[in-house]
Amino acid sequence: MIITCLKNMKMGSKFSFLFVNVVLVVASINKGVNCMNVSSSNADLDDYTQFLLANGVARTPPMGWNSRNHFQCNIDERTIKTTADALVSTGLAALGYKYVNIDDCWGEEKRDWKGSLRAKASTFPSGIKALADYVHSKGLKLGIYSDAGYRTCSKKMPGSLGHEEQDAKTFAEWGVDYLKYDNCYHDGSKPQERYARMSYALRNVGRPILYSLCEWGQENPAKWAGLYGNAWRTTGDIKDTWESVISIADENNIWGRYAGPGRWNDPDMLEVGNGGMNLEEYRSHFSIWALMKAPLLIGCDIQSASHETIRILGNKEVIDVNQDPLGVQGRKIRAKAGLEIWAGLLSGKRVAVVLWNRSGSRAPITVGWREIGFSPYNPVIVRDLWAHSFISMRKRHGLTAYVASHACKMYILTPS
């Protein structure tokens, strides 16, 4: 792990954690690709990956909205349409929140006489195709949900196990752009087999569909899911609590070396704005998710979101860290008594740093330039991403900030 590597380095070493981070990213992705067998050739996989990247699918972590965290099963086509409208009117769509994702409970309990999935007539009377057309007319993309089992997690509609090709064609015909694929009520077979079948089906529909594997991290999907999809859940379901956020962040941190353009670790959707945490905790949540290059999928009701919630979700400087084209997941590099330093390499030799106070009281946190691969003798330009201002540096060897309990400070550091 990166932290172990760092502890074993001498302070004067010419190697930095950033160098190790990049090496591990490349080595681990290559290792993952070489150790898995799939139903199609490596050439087919490479061609499909290039097809997706050329079409802009998950070149950077996907951004958008998902219905699950706030609405659960209480969804209908009006909610989806008004959410699409709200993404545009709040300016969030212009910042990159493009996917409008319908989660569980959108379909009828049984398939039609041809064996096809169908939208629930009472809640989606116009059908998914018409809804996709509406979302597309707003310059957005539509996502949908299914399951690698016989039933979805709600038990209210069929899963896609045994119907992968048929369902993939249906989604493509409807104009779907994103598939979240869950892991409930399956036949006990390995997820590598079940998720691979849907991956192969999606490759053959002639439409770029972002494929998000929701396997909950049970079989260490970071090690194999990059062969099949664009994002994979590394954890169980998030809750709108501080304890859930810090636990999930630590779980996702373990797998940082496997992420990169086209393939992302997913610590689950954002809870920002749902009411279970305070604003400082939500800023920390959003900052760490952005640094970890997690998919930024809003989980609150955008139509009723407060100005403070929109300001957090709409912080362009933090979003830019998440969407940096280099695609290196930020990692935890030091922690003691709840005071933590997280950092990640950005394009242009810059480094994003989060000073995160998980303790119960305000405290100073210091990051040294050597810790992030900078020379202690050269000047550094420091940009505070929440204050939207530059910091005048009096010390050359590092940065110290007093951070409130459960809050964070987030910076971009640029050597000059």
Automatic annotation (TrEMBL):
Limits of the Alpha galactosidase C-terminal domain: 338-413
- Extract the Pfam families matched here: Melibiase_2, Melibiase_C
Q: Which organism is it from?
A: Populus euphratica (Euphrates poplar)
| Xref: InterPro entries | Aldolase_TIM, GH, Glyco_hydro_27, Glyco_hydro_27/36_CS, Glyco_hydro_b, Melibiase_C
Specify the protein name. Alpha-galactosidase
Which Gene Ontology molecular-function terms are recorded? Answer: alpha-galactosidase activity
- What gene is it encoded by? LOC105128085
Q: Which residues form a coiled coil?
A: none
* Annotated EC: 3.2.1.22
Which interval of the chain is the signal sequence?
1-35
SUPFAM superfamilies xrefs: (Trans)glycosidases (SSF51445), Glycosyl hydrolase domain (SSF51011)
Q: Which reaction does it catalyse?
A: Hydrolysis of terminal, non-reducing alpha-D-galactose residues in alpha-D-galactosides, including galactose oligosaccharides, galactomannans and galactolipids
- Assigned protein family: Belongs to the glycosyl hydrolase 27 family.
Provide this UniProt record's keywords sorted from A to Z.
Answer: Disulfide bond, Glycosidase, Hydrolase, Signal
Which GO BP terms, alphabetically? carbohydrate metabolic process
Q: Does the keyword Signal apply?
A: yes
What's one GO-annotated cellular component? plant-type cell wall
Q: Supply the enzyme class, top level.
A: hydrolase
User: Could you tell me which PANTHER family the record lists for this protein?
Assistant: ALPHA-GALACTOSIDASE, ALPHA-GALACTOSIDASE/ALPHA-N-ACETYLGALACTOSAMINIDASE
